[in-house]
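Annex B. Sample input.
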Amino acid sequence: MLLTLIITIISTSVPSFAIGDPKLDKLVGTFRGSYYANQGHTGLTLKVEKTDDGEYIAEFFFYSVPDNPSVPSGRYKCEVTYLSDTGNYYVRGVEWIERPSGYVFVDLEGPLKEGIFEGIVDSHLGSKYTFHLVKQEGENAPSNWAEVTVDDAVLEGYVPLELQNNYKKSITRAEFARLVVAAISLKTDQNIEEVIESKGYSYEENPFDDTSDRYVLAASTLNIVKGYGNRKFGPDDLITREQSAVMLTRLAEVFNVDTSENRSIQFKDRSSFSDWAVSSIDFVTHRTDKKTNTPVMMGSDNLFNPKGNYTKEQAILTIYRLMNSLD
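Annex B, continued. Sample output.
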């Protein structure tokens, strides 16, 4: 009787662990990128996880990209398997969570190599397309404090595909202009040329000798970005925090926001603000995201650090907050 009891206690107290598949374990995580299907170029976030039962499932999030802003958002659950005969992974749609009218599942098949998951999209409508996804890990993953907001910004279509990586690196002036133009196109549901025309502007001769980047030129035409003088823009120069504050303020003015009435936060380093940036810093530290009640830009330890560089994830967060402040 005692022996039976001991055996029972031991057998019921040992937890069971799902063994899973080492090959499929490599696919667990978040991937971002895009795919092509009947609706054209489409943004894609794929989140793969392993359940307690050792099964592999995924959520397939699709959304618009700046070059195809009419695509609606949607998502569905998927089964994930490994095809040992080809060495490919297969992601198959099984259940809709949010289904836009007229949309059907598409399945993905391809190999995973050095964090890149790419291959063929099967639309089940007789057409084959392609996809390209990058695993969000290491340098390609945002910091923990930025992860949720970056995820929201990507899923809502604010972050161009080429900027969905290296989130912790400082952002360049040209990259910031790219984010700004994407935000304008998404918020207005117009391509940037239509926005420029609706504002009564037109492209003039390129004012810069060091760049012909179409997004820089568009942002310049809308008076959001300016050069250093002598026809220099410095597209690869790292943007500073006070420069970004000015560009964010001018971005708000594109949407007819009054940026003149603001309270001043007495940052300890206020005396180091450039004269041309003071009113903009006041604006971005006063203007708040209506979803989270968070200022567009903030300081740390009562310091704004105006000459400090700005990371890609910080730029994404602040542009996203500014767009939310317009709602």
